[in-house]
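G., the chain you wanted modeled:
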Amino acid sequence: MKFKIGLIWRIVIAIALAVGLGYLAPMIGERFAELFTRFFATFNMLFGGFLNFIVPFIILSFITPGIAKLGKGSGKLLGLATVFAYASTIVAGILAYFAATTILPSYIHGLGETSIGTGKEAAASFFTIEMTPLMGVMTALILAFVLGIGMASIGSTTMLHLFEELNTIIEKVITVIIIPLLPIHIFGIFLNMTFTGEVAKVLSIFIFVFVMIIVLHLVMLTIQYTVAGAVSQRNPFRLMKIMAPAYFTAVGTQSSAATIPVTLRQAKQTGASAKVTDFTIPLFATIHLSGSTITLVSCSIGVMLMNGMPISFVSYLGFIFMLGITMIAAPGVPGGAVVAATGLLSTMLGFDESMVALMIALYMAQDSFGTATNVTGDGALAIVVDSFSKEATAK
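Predicted structure as tokens:
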């Protein structure tokens, strides 16, 4: 049997190697350390440029067929499910914003100046290659909406198949190129941070943010199941216990799509009708990402505070609203949500390539827990939709 190291552990190994080699390289010689770091800085330049180039295609291939397929639902049930899923994602983002902006500043400022670029100057790449995207992120978003809504309204099958095939191609790019190379990219970023003497501060912030995010996930699940328990007149903690197998399955698979069979089975055991669960659980797997939103908002605030960037609720609210849409139909692969969100991080929050890389590293370190929160929350939403649909039928 072939042994395979999971992506999370590959990233952990990459960070550990970057820190270790970053401290050992100067012992061989400062010139060697600089050249070694510049080599991986060059790789990061190439990888970051390719990632920026592919982001508009990710948005088009994820969102367009996702919106088009929503038109195939059963009217009122589809509307209820979509509204509740989007509302849950937005609430999760707002919860994360207020928690992160309340807790993180005092901790990060207590560590002293942590802005990227302090101390020794970061190593530059040997050369630069411009990879200009074919369109901007916002252009891709608007085009995806226009095409997706248009395809849904006319019942297009030809264009839907075209975008589904584009989705398959881009998902292949993510799984075969981007995800495998992510650990090397993260290695290069942390090697450069070790070279500049900043890695200890960054790692301490990583650990703190990780713990805070896990707590926020549990808080969000408690809120979701309290609402589900109230509308269905069931014990929320019993409902959470029933859905626990879905949570632990998602921790292992890191994929909402791969966990659907377990989520569906457990959702039916909560008492929600088979008609509702059979329809909503697969739908929620692509449009409900409360756990991922908590992670993305919390991590992005942490990165912005590390860089001394201003943070305002108004600008973040727009980011949260767009995030809930951009992640629609993110692929069922580890890190799909953060890859889909990289365009928004750059255009709406002003992230540069090093900040995006830090963001990816932070996100990927706990991606499995965010996915587990997503799918476990799907069960709560299915109960809510079932309760509201029964009330509507009774009237």
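The chain is about 80% helix and 0% strand.

Shout if anything looks off.
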